[in-house]
Design a protein that fits this description.
The structure holds 5 protein chains of 5 kinds. By secondary structure, chain A is an all-alpha fold. Chain A is built from 9 helices and no strands. The longest helix of chain A is centred in the first third of the chain and has 25 residues. The radius of gyration of chain B is 18 Å and the shape is elongated. Classes of the chains: A mainly alpha, B mainly alpha, C mainly alpha, D mainly alpha, E mainly alpha.
Chain lengths: 194, 109, 512, 504, 679
């Protein structure tokens, strides 16, 4: 357990520090680099929560995205070193962000998240109900009286099944969305009417 | 490594992103900040999903992964938004030779 | 509840609208043809409205000539196309027809965008007729609102002076009033047992609306309606739109405005406040009458100061319409066979003031056409240059200051009769108003018609035959009512009978 | 994925296919007329399929289409509610396509993309109104927003790009906020499906200490509203509206102002009436507050506007306020009256769509010719372009809420619903509403005055192609028809909202 | 016997002639104007004969005709009816009105000859005659009020007949408004009666039916209903009297009558001397049974009447306009009648009304004829007309003597009865009051005699002083506007026969009307007419009509002596020893004369102080200011605020994209905070 906690702390600190860097560093290069660091850290956190597949997706897509961002940053920003300047809204923005953060933390702390998760316990009390978010190992799940298939499903995440199953419609829709984005992006980038 | 701690980390990232989205001049920097917000959301979603696992396991299996599915979609949509965003960046750049948002304020009052 | 479909009212109400449509699609071309087409249509509508009046049988059903079919009938909302006349509305329908024709004839000189002008005039007439005949709140409100736009355009397009300001002022005031009315109507609607906008069912004794299920306190409803109608009437202190609107409106606009549109307010007070909220009206009779008397005196006093003919008449209207409130408040003293004197007076005042002020504005209109001024100090000694116009002024003026044998006297006398029973002191104050009335009317006549004539008016011509038509029509109607009013009062009294009986029985309409 | 699933989503598929078809056609031949024709005629397919669905729905006695083993039903519910909006959206997009006939000619190339994006956005809307699951809703929302953002930036000028940029950034931020709210809901209820959310909330919302039972629910509702409010253009999430309306291509603005608004309200109705049914007592006050805010801000600011698109931007904010009144009018009594509020919203949306389309079509006609959207340049329009001018005047009268137009009935209906709740707060809201319509009369009539009374600067007549005139005429006729004979649509609206209030 | 239609005909014939002239003859133009005159005369002639017939048949068969009234306006509870009240009062008044009117119309043929408004004149005259007859016939108080106002209107029209003269228009307005003030009292009385309608109905009475009102006022003891009594009765009477005072120019509402002389002279003769102004007296007489029940009311009437009699006479002393002198004398004589009614001398008052109609009409016609010749009304520019126009002179003298009340002329008999009854003090008022009235009236006699002689002397005696010619010159020299009635054409000579003949007839009446109509002691006209016939006839109209007291030599002698004294006094001032030349000796009277000449400054007080300063400038001015600045100002302010608040909010719309989500976020946070705060 202590190992998980250690990893968690390292990753979270990295993520938060990186995020702050992204918005505070003046140099656009650096902030982009820091952003990738945040992505990696978040990916790590995903792994920590046994969402390996998601972690992979995260890294792959975002690395691509960041690469593109780099190019544009270089192309379109006159002075990259000073490319990441704040506008006149810093103070109010900071204020708002802080207040919202307060609200979110309050939410996280005050809300009794066990209402539902706890509801599961009576019937399947065998699962060690900790306040932890960690990898439930096979034994744990089997102990919960799950079939091997189910265990497999839970552990290795049948995301694919879901994406062509219950969530097939959003899946198709998102493809349309990408299409639309591509068309729009290209149309705009290609320069309209000239 | 409790649920709360995970949520808190997520919300910090989210709010930092929000701050960036509100306070940056550079269009691209704003896009990056928005990515931060999405990451915060994803973190929350996955954490929630994981936290709900026992309950979900009992109810129906798919729900265990609903959070992750959601996250996948968020990532995808984010990518799409970046794509379109960059297109508009071009448009803006073409019209007023800069990607500084404070320059693009001709529509007002 | 009224049912059936006679068709007569529908035709009467929508004939002008159809004519407007024909004009709109360009069925008639050439200004001259358009004018005469308009005249013919208006005359036809007058005939129809007279038929409506004549075929209304006092003592028959309360509502007659009913046209009805379901308009909106869904779970949440039931409204019907329901037209009908009772003793209160039948005369007003005739009045509208009459003034409609006059409005057309005084508009013959209009040469600027003639087609549009008559289109709006006709739309206006349909709207007003609709208000007087609609027996479904939704329909009533619909017509009430429709009337705004044509009037707005008439004033702001063919008006004079600060016409756009005045038009906007008129519109904002009226819409604000009707906004209050809308809230009240909706409250009545959602609380009415029959869950519909049908007035007749709301008017049935022991009626549909009971205070216990009212969405708003009955008192509040009463006042919401009252404000809406008071603005239209208009009552002090919400009268200031009237002088501006009158002054800047074209003659026909003023005629319709003063002649029938102010009457919509009075009609509403009788139809809604007096009929559906009898107990509230009794409770609040004192403030109502007080407002009325203030209007009477205040209006008269301010009138004395005006130097613009139209403004002067406008303020005198404020003064005269105050009497309607006095008559309305007379129900505070219920019981006895005399309770209806005040209400009858109020109703009569609507009709008589319509004809009298109509005539005054017609006369002013003709005068203005010849002299192009309404500034009293510029005028004078016109009597023997234009005897017809002078006669019109004299008759209208005399009637307006309540001279017997002319219509004004009857209504005022009845109002005073009724008012004195309820509020003697206030009524005496109001009676003093007739001295002021004599003051400003005679002052106006003296400065315009009499005295030495500025030389530049030496070659004025008298009213043309076309202009003569409205003058004759209105003079005849004024004298007819003045010499033998029974033919009118009997109809009004028949319409008011249910209300009065209700009061005498201590319960009435819907205000349980 | 069964055949029946395909039938269920066939309208969506048809529309998406049409979008791609149009783009392909554009690649093959650059003829605007053809594009317009294809897009317009092509709309017959989704329309027909929706009709088919409606028929089979009324055939089966159920409230929504059901099938064993269907997977899409996990995220979708094809019911009268959805179909009502399908037709609304299809009608709107069809007319907008027609009216774009003249306008798009200023974009020599990429006209295919223009229509394609519009149709894709419409697809997103149709998905949005049918979705009853948060992920699908989110995707649908983005599918609606991104193409519109692209379209907003479509004109080759800085203002248009700026409009697109604003639309995109603000949209992204608000959807991020909304996402966080969805995440909280998911965490709190363990599901993203509205029915299950409702059940869970009903079970969970016990502690009366905090509104909505828990901090999480409160925060979630507010964040969701941030996202929805952006689409509804309701205060305080409305500020992008005027700028985008001014900068973006007018036909797209017309589409944005009616269709996407309608879809957003459909979304809100579903989420709040089904998902947050248990919390009804808490959120209607919030919506009422937003309604008052939107109406007042929209109308007050509109008074001082000189650009007609901007004016309509503010007016649309005000109308979002009126619509929210209906949403907030959640029936406390239940029973027959339960559907009063939502049905009034549906009818108002229909009437508003007709009126606003008429207005924007007229504006398009005029703007296409005079290349200006300054109110001052509308002087003497009655002479120069009688048909658009009169249509615009009628539309303005409608937007004031005057008869004989649909909005008049709609306003009465929506306010009646509000008063019907018996809450004194709602009565006050209605009073605010009616007073606001008085204010609105002031600036709407100013436009009429300019067009009708002020002398024209130029005198040459403005002509429009027949598709544009047809679109304008149809929209205007609908507007009047809804005012004269609203019965049918009202009835449809009432039956559509049964699914929302079946619970009571 | 006489049938109802015939009685109505008396009223309807003038109406018909009015309509005919107004709608047919006038539009046809000046060439047909004469027809209007003949038409009117014919109508009135027939009316006169009919009313004589009515009087005769009523008086000789001692029958009171009662025709059922006709419903005019049904008010559910009480109804307003139109009908005929043919009591002696009415019958006599009918004869007077139609008779005098007829004479005046004939006279006008000459006097108005060539006036551009000839037809209009006769239209108005017919209207007036009709209204006056209607007033006299009325059986219902509302009906009475209707015609009451109509005579007011026709008076307005006729005073302002020459409406191009500002003075005429102003005088007309003044007359109407001041009488209107009185009429408000009348109207309130009517309204008050209606207030009691149900009570009346419970006694089977109609609150607006005049005989019923008498009955209601009579105490139960006297077999009445006693519905209105005490204070209410007093107020009722005062209301009615206010109306009467307005019409009959009683103090303080008398100021309009002298100005009313702006109208054509025949108008003054008919309306402002013989008939309309007498309507006030008629009104009080009509409701005498009601007044009689309230002692206080009677005292008011008596004192106001007596005071007016003297007050007006004093102003008559200083007037130079012959018509104004007569106007004041009219007011004064009306005061006599009021006073008589006040002291309960009902018969005497009406008798005086009867005689006064003849000699005052005669005097005015005389003045008119004089003006016809001298071209002016200003006695300062007349004189010596006796030689020029003997007929006019002698007739005027007869009228004057009759006015002064010299035996045996008509005026003497009636005035004598008034004095006698007030001396005997048999009326409802206390003896002291009655005697006070008696004294005042004697003073009145003295003054009357004085100014009457002054008038006759200045007009007819001495040397001619240039007439209108001179006056106009003087006016232009002094730079003042041309005085009313002053014309350049001065032709000293007798007026045409068409003018003199009516004067002759009236003159005859002025001589004999007294002792033929109301002989004392013996019967007259070969025993056809019993003694005290007229007064007895009047009395028969009342329930408790008391009989006229026997003729008293004492009073007669006293009054005549005083009258002659007055004449002598005047002669000392004007004729002998120093005959009048140009300047009025009285004007040396200093402030007193000024006071009289300025009519006690009452017009000044009314018009400049009360109306001008107090009312118009203060009340009206302030209200108007409030209306424009406060009430309308608020409207403007509201608009201004809403406009500017709008642009204020618009400032937040600063175009910076990130401001917008910021605002949104702030909004969201505010919502959360509100929820947490308010729960």
């Amino acid at each position: 357990m202590w190992f998980e906690s250690l990893v968690f702390w390292i990753l979270s600190v990295a993520a938060i520090a990186g995020a702050l860097g992204v918005v505070l560093v003046r140099d656009l290069f650096r902030s982009a680099l820091l952003l990738s660091m945040v992505f990696v850290a978040v990916g790590g956190l995903f792994v920590l929560m046994n969402a390996e597949f998601l972690a992979v997706v995260q890294i792959l897509i975002y690395v691509g995205a960041i690469a593109v961002l780099f190019i544009f940053a270089v192309m379109l920003t006159r002075n990259v070193q000073q490319g990441n300047m704040p506008n006149r809204l810093q103070i109010p923005a900071a204020l708002v962000a802080t207040l919202l953060l307060a609200a979110m933390i309050a939410t996280a702390v005050t809300t009794d998240w066990t209402t539902l998760a706890g509801a599961g316990l009576e019937s399947k009390g065998q699962i060690a109900q900790t306040q932890a978010v960690g990898i439930p190992d096979a034994a744990e799940l089997a102990g919960a009286g799950l079939t091997a298939a189910e265990v497999e499903n839970v552990r290795s995440g049948g995301l694919a099944d879901l994406l062509i199953g219950d969530f097939v419609l959003p899946f198709e829709a998102v493809s349309l969305l990408l299409l639309a984005a591509a068309i729009g992006g290209l149309a705009l980038a290609r320069g309209r009417g000239r | 490594m409790s649920l709360e701690s995970m949520l808190i980390v997520a919300s910090v990232i989210f709010c930092v992103g929000l701050y960036g989205a509100l306070a940056q001049r550079n269009f691209i920097a704003v896009l990056m900040s928005i990515e931060l917000m999405f990451n915060g959301v994803n973190l929350t979603l996955v954490a929630m999903g994981r936290w709900l696992a026992p309950y979900a396991v009992q109810e129906q299996l798919s729900a265990v992964l609903t959070g992750q599915v959601f996250a996948v979609f968020v990532i995808t949509v984010a990518a799409a938004e970046i794509a379109l965003g960059l297109g508009i960046v071009f448009a803006i750049f073409r019209s007023n030779e800069s990607v500084d948002l404070t320059d693009a304020a001709s529509l007002r009052h | 509840m009224a049912t059936g479909f006679t068709g007569l009212l529908t035709v009467t109400v929508f004939l002008p609208a159809v004519a407007a449509l024909l004009l709109g699609v360009g069925a008639v071309r050439g200004d001259r043809n358009i004018r005469w087409f308009a005249a013919v249509v208006a005359a036809a509508d007058l005939v129809l409205s007279v038929i409506v009046f004549v075929s209304f049988r006092p003592g028959g059903d309360q509502f007659q000539l009913v046209d009805r079919f379901d308009w909106i009938s869904v779970e949440t909302m039931h409204a019907s196309y329901l037209l009908g006349v009772d003793g209160i509305s039948a005369p007003l329908v005739m009045l509208t027809g009459l003034l409609g024709l006059c409005a057309v004839f005084v508009s013959f000189h209009i040469s600027h965008r003639v087609r549009e002008y008559f289109i709006w005039l006709f739309v206006l007439q349909t709207a007003v007729l609709g208000v007087f005949t609609a027996l479904d709140f939704l329909l009533f409100f619909l017509f009430w609102e429709i009337e705004l736009v044509p009037m707005y355009l008439l004033i702001s397009t063919w008006g004079a002076g600060r016409r756009e300001y005045s038009a906007m002022k008129f519109l904002i005031f009226t819409i604000l009033g009707s906004a209050f009315m809308l809230v009240a109507i909706l409250a009545v609607f959602v609380s009415s047992g029959v869950d519909s906008f049908n007035m007749t069912s709301l008017l049935e004794p022991g009626g549909a609306l009971d205070a216990t299920r009212a969405a708003l306190p009955m008192g509040l409803l009463f006042w919401l309606f009252f404000i809406a109608f008071a603005v239209k009437l208009p009552t002090w202190p919400v009268h200031t739109w009237l002088p501006d609107a009158h002054t800047d409106a074209p003659t026909a606009g003023s005629v319709m405005l003063a002649g029938v549109m102010l009457k919509m307010g009075g009609y509403g007070l009788l139809r809604v406040n007096a009929s559906m909220f009898p107990e509230q009206l009794q409770t609040y009779a004192l403030p109502v009458v007080a407002l009325g008397v203030i209007s009477v005196l205040y209006g008269a006093v301010v009138t004395l100061r005006q130097t613009d003919l139209k403004r002067l008449i406008a303020y005198s209207s404020v003064s005269h319409m105050g009497l309607v409130l006095l008559g309305l408040g007379s129900v505070a003293a219920v019981g006895g066979a005399l309770s209806d004197a005040g209400l009858t007076g109020a109703a009569m005042q609507l009709f008589t003031h319509g004809t009298i002020t109509g005539l005054l504005f017609v006369a002013v209109g003709i005068l203005y056409e010849k002299t192009h001024t309404r500034h009293i100090p510029d005028l004078g000694g016109l009597a023997n240059r234009m005897p017809v116009v002078a006669t019109a002024f004299l008759v209208a003026g005399a009637a307006s200051l309540g001279l017997p044998a002319l219509s004004g006297f009857v209504s005022e006398l009845l109002v005073f009769f009724g008012g004195f029973r309820a509020f003697p002191a206030l009524t005496i104050l109001a009676v003093l108003g007739i001295i002021l009335a004599a003051g400003y009317i005679l002052w106006m006549l003296q400065r315009t018609l009499f005295g030495p004539r500025p030389s530049r008016w030496d070659d004025l011509s008298d009213a043309s035959p076309v202009e003569l038509v409205p003058v004759v029509l209105l003079v005849v109607s004024i004298v007819a009512v003045g010499v033998y009013p029974a033919w009118l009062t009997d109809v009004f009294r028949d319409g008011l009978e249910p209300i009065v009986n209700g009061y005498n029985a201590g319960i009435a309409g819907v205000g349980r | 994925m069964t055949a029946y699933d395909l039938f269920l989503i066939s309208p969506l598929l048809a529309l998406a296919a049409l979008a791609m078809l149009v783009i392909v056609v554009d690649l093959l031949t650059r003829r605007t007329g053809l594009l317009v024709g294809v897009s317009f005629v092509g709309l017959a397919a989704p329309a027909a399929l929706s009709v088919w669905q409606l028929v089979s729905l009324s055939g089966s006695g159920q409230s929504e289409l059901m099938a064993e083993g269907s997977v899409v039903l996990y995220t979708l519910s094809i019911d009268r509610f959805a179909l009502f909006f399908n037709f609304l959206i299809l009608a709107a997009v069809g007319l907008v396509v027609l009216v774009s006939n003249d306008y798009v000619r200023r974009i020599e190339r990429l006209q295919g993309e223009y229509f394609g994006l519009m149709l894709l956005s419409a697809t997103g809307m149709m998905l949005m109104v049918a979705a009853d699951e948060l992920i699908t809703m989110y995707i649908a929302l983005e599918l609606t927003t991104l193409p519109l953002a692209a379209l907003a930036a479509f004109l080759p000028n800085g203002r248009s790009s700026e409009a697109g940029m604003k639309f995109l950034i603000i949209g992204a931020i608000s959807s991020a906020l909304m996402l966080y709210g969805m995440a909280l809901i998911y965490g709190l209820t363990g599901s993203t499906r509205l029915e299950e959310i409702a059940v869970a909330l009903a079970a969970g919302s016990s502690s009366g200490l905090i509104p909505f039972g828990s901090m999480a629910a409160l925060l979630a509702v507010v964040l969701l509203l941030a996202g929805f409010g952006f689409k509804m253009s309701a205060a305080p999430f409305q500020m992008w509206v005027p700028d985008v309306y001014q900068g973006a291509p007018t036909p797209m603005v017309a589409f944005l102002s009616v269709a996407s608004k309608a879809a957003a309200f459909a979304l809100v109705l579903r989420v709040f009436y089904i998902g947050f049914d248990a919390l009804g007592g808490d959120w209607w006050v919030l919506l009422a507050g937003l309604a008052a805010l939107s109406m007042t801000i929209g109308n007050l600011v509109a008074i001082s506007q000189r650009n007609i698109n901007r004016l309509f931007g503010y007016s649309t904010i005000a109308h979002a306020g009126y619509l929210l009144v209906g949403v907030a009018a959640i029936a406390t009594a239940g029973g027959e009256e339960a559907g009063f509020g939502p049905s009034s919203v549906l009818f108002y949306l229909t009437a508003y769509t007709a009126a606003n389309l008429t207005a924007f079509f007229a504006i398009t006609c005029i703007e296409t010719r005079i290349n200006s959207s300054e109110i001052a340049d509308y002087a003497g329009m009655l002479r120069r372009a009688p048909f658009p001018a009169i249509a615009l005047a009628l539309a303005l009268i409608a937007l004031i809420g005057l008869p004989p137009t649909g909005v008049f009935i709609a306003k009465i209906h929506i306010f009646a619903a509000a008063i019907n709740t018996g809450e004194s707060l709602m009565t006050w809201l209605v009073i605010i509403g009616v007073v606001n319509s008085v204010i609105s009369a002031y600036y709407y009539l100013r436009v009429i005055r300019v067009m009708f009374l002020q002398p024209a600067i130029h005198t040459e007549r403005l002509r429009a192609s027949w598709p544009v005139n047809v679109a304008l005429g149809v929209a205007a006729l609908c507007m009047l028809w809804l005012g004269v004979a609203p019965g049918a649509v009202l009835d449809a609206a009432e039956r559509a909202v049964v699914v929302l209030v079946a619970g009571g | 016997m006489i049938a109802e239609p015939l009685v109505w005909a008396i009223f309807l014939l003038p109406v018909a002639s009015f309509l005919l002239i107004g709608l047919v003859i006038r539009p046809m133009g000046a060439s047909f104007a004469k027809v209007a005159g003949y038409l009117t005369i014919a109508a009135l002639g027939v009316g006169f004969i009919l009313s004589l017939w009515l009087l005769r048949s009523s008086a000789y068969h001692h029958t009171v005709y009662e025709f059922a009234p006709h419903l005019w306006l049904d008010l559910g509870g009480a109804s307003i009816e139109m009908g005929l009240l043919l009591d002696p009062l009415t019958n006599v008044m009918l004869v007077v009105v139609t008779g005098v009117s007829l004479m005046v119309q004939i006279y006008s043929l000459g006097y108005m000859d060539g006036d551009e408004g000839f037809a209009r004149y006769y239209a108005y005259m017919s209207l007036f005659s009709a209204s006056m007859i209607g007033l006299v016939l009325a059986v219902n108080i509302v009906q009475m009020y209707v015609f009451w106002e109509l005579v007011g209107l026709s008076s307005y029209l006729l005073i302002g007949f020459w409406h191009n003269r500002p003075s005429a228009a102003a005088a007309a307005k003044k007359a109407f408004i001041i009488t209107r003030i009185g009429d408000v009292g009348f109207l309130l009385a009517i309204i008050y009666l209606f207030f009691h309608a149900e009570e009346f109905a419970s006694h089977g009475l109609n609150a607006l039916h005049i005989p019923h009102i008498w009955e209601a006022a009579a105490p139960i003891a006297a077999g009445g209903a006693g519905i209105v009594a005490g204070g209410a009765l007093l107020w009722l009477c005062l209301g009615l009297f206010a109306g009467a005072a307005g019409k009959s120019g009683q103090f303080p509402l008398h100021t309009w009558l002298p100005d009313a002389m702006e109208g054509p002279t025949p108008v003054s003769a008919l309306i402002h001397a013989a008939t309309m102004v007498a309507a006030g007296v008629f009104l009080v007489g009509r409701f005498f049974p009601v007044f009689a029940e309230s002692q206080a009311a009677m005292m008011v009437v008596a004192l106001i009447g007596a005071f007016t009699a003297v007050f007006a006479a004093t102003m008559g002393l200083a007037a130079n306009d012959i018509k104004r002198v007569m106007a004041y004398s009219t007011v004064s004589q009306l005061g006599y009648m009021m006073a008589a009614l006040g002291v309960g001398a009902y018969n005497a008052a009406l008798f005086h009304l009867f005689t006064h109609a003849f000699f005052k009409a005669l005097l005015f016609l005389g003045a008119g004829s004089v003006n016809h010749a001298a071209g002016t009304f200003n006695m300062m520019y007349m004189g010596g007309l006796r030689k020029a126009m003997p007929w006019t002179y002698w007739l005027t003298v007869i009228g004057s003597l009759s006015l002064v009340g010299i035996f045996p002329l008509a005026g003497f008999w009636s005035k004598d009865e008034i004095l006698l009854e007030s001396w005997l003090a048999g009326g409802p008022v206390p003896a002291s009051i009655s005697l006070l009235v008696f004294v005042l009236l004697l003073v009145g006699v003295l003054l009357t005699a004085f100014y009457t002689y002054r008038m006759v002397h200045l007009t007819f005696h001495g040397e001619f002083r240039g007439g209108g010619e001179r006056e106009l010159h003087a006016a232009t020299a002094a730079g003042v506007p041309a005085p009313t009635g002053a014309t350049h054409h001065v032709h000293l000579g007798e007026s045409p026969a068409v003018m003199v003949a009516p004067m002759g007839i009236l003159g005859f009446c002025a001589i004999v009307a007294g002792w033929i109509a109301n002989p004392i002691g013996v019967t007259s006209v070969f025993g056809l007419i019993p003694s005290h016939w007229l007064t007895e006839y009047f009395a028969s109209g009342l329930h408790d009509g008391h009989h006229a007291p026997p003729f008293s030599i004492g009073i007669a002698v006293i009054s005549n002596v005083i009258a002659f004294a007055g004449i002598g006094l005047a002669a000392l001032v004007y004729a002998w020893p120093r005959p009048f030349v140009s300047r009025d000796p009285l004007s040396g009277g200093g402030p007193l004369h000024t006071l009289l000449a300025q009519r006690y400054f009452m017009d000044h007080f009314y018009e400049d102080v009360v109306v001008g300063r107090l009312f118009y400038r203060s009340v009206v001015g302030i209200t108007d200011w409030v209306d424009r600045n406060i009430i309308d100002g608020l409207v403007g302010l509201t608009g201004w605020i809403s406009r500017n608040v709008g642009s204020l909010i618009a400032l937040a719309q600063n175009g910076q994209v990130q401001t917008y989500p910021l605002v949104a976020a702030v909004g969201g946070l505010v919502i959360i905070i509100l929820y947490l705060a308010l729960g």
